Amino acid sequence: MTENSTKTAGTAAEATGDSAASEADAPAVALSRRRLLGTVGAAGAAGLVVGGAGGAFGAVAAQDDAPKLSTVGASEVAFRADRRTPQAGITTPMQARCHLVAFDLAPGAGRKGAAALMRRWSALAEKLMAGKAPADDSGVALDAGPASLTVTFGFGHSFFGRTELTARRPMQLDPLPSFSADALDPKRSNGDLWIQIGADDALVAFHALRALQKEAGDTARLRWQMNGFNRSPGATAQPMTTRNLMGQVDGTNNPKPSDEDFEERIFVGRDADQQWMRGGSYVVLRRIRMLLDTWEKKSRAEQERVIGRRKADGAPLTGGDEHTAMDLNKLGPDGSPVIPADAHARIAAPESNQGAAMLRRPFSYHDGFRDDGAPDAGLLFMAWQADPLRAFTQIQRKLDRGDALSPFLRHEASGLYAVPAVEPSGYVGQPLLEG
């Protein structure tokens, strides 16, 4: 769970970081409606109640004198580029908040209804990610900037039957096999349509969730929704790999966009059996509850042996720092492997899986407490790959056969979605729905 997990360093060039403006580069006059109204509100309404020219002058003065948004609030991620690119939210740096939501198409909506919905959703997502409010805005995020908002859309296995597009369903969407730790709730799994919302501000994230839900109208019905969180930007003295709710550094051995084979592992190539997925990716979602009461009874040394890494800094038990390669052949004084044979880091490592790797981008969750007082908390595991059978399924099968971490986990929901690239114009999924 911690190995091959998220550290998402930069972005694939077009998908992320270049669009995130710093405080210094943000044009002073390029204020969105949300920002303008927020600035006026922060400065007070005194200049606006005068009426006429006095009101206008007061608004301009408030705009000029108000403090600028911090880098966190001003950061913007582009919805699309000038060519086909992966959707935002895949290689985008981790945000502090997320909402995951799945919908099922309403009876009779069909392909035509799905196309109209994706057209509306894409237009709305592009506006929201630019920090602009929709016409009937609720006002939740009027005083905030884009806050690195991303909206990512995917299609589930059942979507293709409901839209009479089964001939265009990729084989990579074949249902995942069952695993021994599965205790899956079908009501919180799968779904025709899937949306991932991420932002560095909780209100911005909720605002996007609510706007997209309302835009679904009568075309699609909510199936399930989950909420997640990570560290807020600036919460540590320097940028660091995040920790999960077990207290483990979670994101050490993730593929990086700078890796020579990154694109090949994570994104669908030109030889795809379904050309509408070229440049896209497949995401596996697992809601994994952590048995924290049991885990926290283990000593730190026992926890480190389960993971195969030091808890303090994420370094392998064989020495070095977090990013030092594991020495899987190193033996201790007693002749046994320093990194135990069933350690999670060993079993999940690419070198133990014929090079198989996933780009993990998980969020933690906490949904209160269960009847026995145990926290209902854990990980919203999301793994991106070009082929789930060669990546997630292969690695999970191996973990299923002897991972020391498995007794502390329960997989309670699952989903697999095709996430196509976004075109320079039009809406997400247009080549599928109109091709």
Automatic annotation (TrEMBL):
Binds 1 heme b (iron(II)-protoporphyrin IX) group non-covalently per subunit. Residues 9-24 have a biased composition (Low complexity). Keywords: Heme, Iron, Lyase, Metal-binding, Oxidoreductase, Peroxidase, Signal. Residues 87-230 form the Dyp-type peroxidase N-terminal domain. Residues 241-422 form the Dyp-type peroxidase C-terminal domain. The keyword Iron applies. Its main location: other. It is found in: Cell envelope. Transmembrane segments: none annotated. Residues 1-24 are annotated as: Disordered. Signal peptide: none annotated. Its cofactor is heme b. It is an enzyme of class 1 (oxidoreductase). It catalyses: heme b + 2 H(+) = protoporphyrin IX + Fe(2+). InterPro entries: Dimeric_a/b-barrel, Dyp_perox_C, Dyp_perox_N, Dyp_peroxidase, EfeB/EfeN, TAT_signal. It comes from the Bacteria. Its EC number is 1.11.1.-. Pfam families: Dyp_perox_C, Dyp_perox_N. Belongs to the DyP-type peroxidase family. Involved in the recovery of exogenous heme iron. Extracts iron from heme while preserving the protoporphyrin ring intact. This is Deferrochelatase. The gene is efeB_2.
